[in-house]
Amino acid sequence: MSNKKFPFSKLFVLHCLMYCGCTTGTYYYNATLTTIASTMDGNVILAGMLASTYSLVAMFCRPVAGFMNEKFGRRRSNEWGLYGTILSILLMIIAKDLMVLFIARVLAGISFSVTSAANYAAASDLAPEDNKALGIGWFQNMATFASYIGPAVGVWGLNRYLATGSWSAFYIVTLLTAVYSLVLNFFIRYENKPEWKAKMAAAAEARKNKQAVLEDGPVLPPMKPFLGMTVPAWLLIISLALVAMAQQSVGSFLLLSGKERGITALGSYFLLQTIGMFICKGFIAPKIEKIGAMKVVSFAVAVAIVSYFVFSIATSVVPLLIIAPFYGCVWGTFPPVCNTLIVASVPQDRKGFASAMYLFGIDVGYGIGPTLWGIVIAAVGYAKVYFVALFLPIIAMVLFVIYWKGWGKAIFEATQTWKREKAAKLAASAEG
């Protein structure tokens, strides 16, 4: 009989369920915003601006969200963000013109910046110490799961609107989702424990005095601080931004690119891509310690390069469907691995800010990517844009190698040494 324990605590599972509610609301509106705007005499360009506003506002608010994490705590920051989310939904309900809708989207972007930063920081806190990548991978799979729930509910809301001329039923569901997350958030109170407060206070005092952080964790190698983080952490964030930017060439333009080449029936492509993403986040990214970070990232970059080449030369849907689950592995491995390594590259009292900056890297890629690829497409066409996109993961790989050679390997070895020592102490205390 196997004695293998369930790897996650009850509090971590509760946090993941709460985060699924937070993320699902984001995908509700991604699927319906264009239609909602058009019912207010808006056009596609204005609807696109509304969508961009959400991401860009979130991007610029990330440093503030990181500060809130450190100053007020994860649970309290998430609570305030959820209040903002609920208020934005109420504004959507009463919106009769695009100006009110725009204000609602700005508020939603600010709220999303705060809640996502708080949730990622809490996930890093609550994930199992002996395998952070495992916890973060399954935590991120909540967003993968929500990426299918949200659009499905969005389509249901659209059908209700077409049948009744009202979005009321749709808004009620989105409001209930936010309230659901708010209620669960009240039960995530690990930050109130005396040992957590003492741990954070000791880390902050040590950093203030420029001493080594004496905490229950690995002894990190010397790293130069820069803009509230460390140099290696910023290298990882830039790498992530480049991969996210390249990903937007697919997320924003694959359908149009296929249409230009007579490739239709791409609905199954996104399903297969999501399946690949889900599997990799849950089963491959968590193996970073056994496989090795360099091997996992090299695999992701190699798959990305091959995928962009296929996107560029494909003349039918078949090669796209074949490459879809493999391309899903790129986004299913690179972000969770970067998240784990970024958080590991900063002291304990900066992990909340580091989680916010991890999301900042994704926001930069998602915010700049669509505009960049629109310009490239105008210059070289839909097919050749993917030849340009494949250079971004190559640059990201170069930056990752610099990180690994300079600091990453030492951080990894220090972490492994700490885990072995901790396991030995636990075994000794159990025998005693």
UniProtKB/TrEMBL annotation:
TM segment ranges: 12-29, 44-68, 80-96, 102-122, 134-157, 169-190, 226-246, 266-284, 296-314, 320-344, 356-379, 385-404
Pfam hit, one: MFS_1
Membrane topology classification: Multi-pass membrane protein
Annotated compartments: Cell membrane
InterPro entries for this protein: MFS, MFS_dom, MFS_Exporter, MFS_trans_sf
Molecular function terms from GO: transmembrane transporter activity
Keywords: Membrane, Transmembrane, Transmembrane helix, Transport
GO cellular component, one term: plasma membrane
Domain named Major facilitator superfamily (MFS) profile: residues: 1-408
Superkingdom as given in the UniProt entry: Bacteria
Gene3D superfamilies cross-referenced by the UniProt entry: MFS general substrate transporter like domains
Protein name: MFS family arabinose efflux permease
Organism: Harryflintia acetispora
